[in-house]
Amino acid sequence: MAVTDDAITRIKQMIMDGELTPGAKLPREGDLAERLGLSRNSLREAVRALSLIHVLDVRQGDGTYVTSLEPRLLLSAMEFVVDFHHDDTVLHFLEVRRILEPAATAAAAAKLTDAEIDALAAHLDSLPDDPTPEELVDSDLVFHRAIAKGSGNPVLASLLETIAGPTHRARIWRGLTQQRATEQTIREHRQILSGLRARQPDVAAAAAVVHIAGVEDWLRRAAAAEPSVAGE
C-alpha cells in the first residue's frame, strides 16, 4: 500500500470509529502526524485527497474539519474509495476503454489534420511543469476527447465520452496515491502523439493500450493490497 493510501486509511478509520465526528476539527498537523506515525507530507497528501472528495473541509487560516454531512452521506462518500479498489465496475469500464480507445487512436492517426495534431501538441505543452492530479486528469480528458473526435466516428467518440465519466475519479485517485503517475502519464501522452504525428496507426494504438493498461494495472494491484476491506 502506498504511504498516502495508508494515511488515508488511518484518517478514515478515525472517522468510522467515531473518534472524528462530522463537523469535528482535526488535531494540528504535527500532532496528528506524530499520533498516526506518519510524515507531515504523507498526512498533507491524505488530507488533500480526502478534501477532494468532500470528506474533509480545509478552511484557510482556520483548520481542517470533517464535513458536516449526515452520517449516511459521510459513509457514502468514504465508500467511493472502496469502489476504486474493490468494485469491478470501474475495472470493467477500463477494460472496455482499453478495447475502444486504441481503435479510435488508430483511426485518428490517419484522419487528423496536421493542424489538429499541432493543436494536440500545444495542449500537452500547456500543462504546468508540476500539475496537480486534477489538472493532469482534466488535460487527459481533453487530449483523449480530441483523439476520439478525430477518429471520424461519432458513435465511437460518444461511447468513449460515456466511459470516461465513471473512471474520472479513479484516475485522479491514482495521481494522488501512486508515485510517478504524473510523469508516466505525460510520457505516455507524448508517445501517443508521436504515433499520430508519424501517421502510424499501429504505433499510436499500441501506445494507447499501454497508457490505459497502466491505470487498469494500478487498480488491480491496489485491490490486491487491501483484501481486508473487500471482506467488510
From TrEMBL:
Query: Which organism is the protein's source?
Result: Flexivirga endophytica
User: Which PROSITE patterns would you find in this protein's record?
Assistant: HTH_GNTR (PS50949)
Single annotated GO MF: DNA-binding transcription factor activity
Q: Which Pfam families match?
A: FCD, GntR
> Does the keyword field hold Transcription regulation?
yes
For the keyword Transcription, the answer is yes
Q: What is this protein called?
A: GntR family transcriptional regulator
Q: Which PANTHER family does UniProt cross-reference here?
A: TRANSCRIPTIONAL REGULATOR, GNTR FAMILY (PTHR43537), UXU OPERON TRANSCRIPTIONAL REGULATOR (PTHR43537:SF5)
Q: Which residues form the HTH gntR-type domain?
A: 1-69
Please name the gene that encodes this protein: pdhR
Which UniProt key words apply to this protein? DNA-binding, Transcription, Transcription regulation
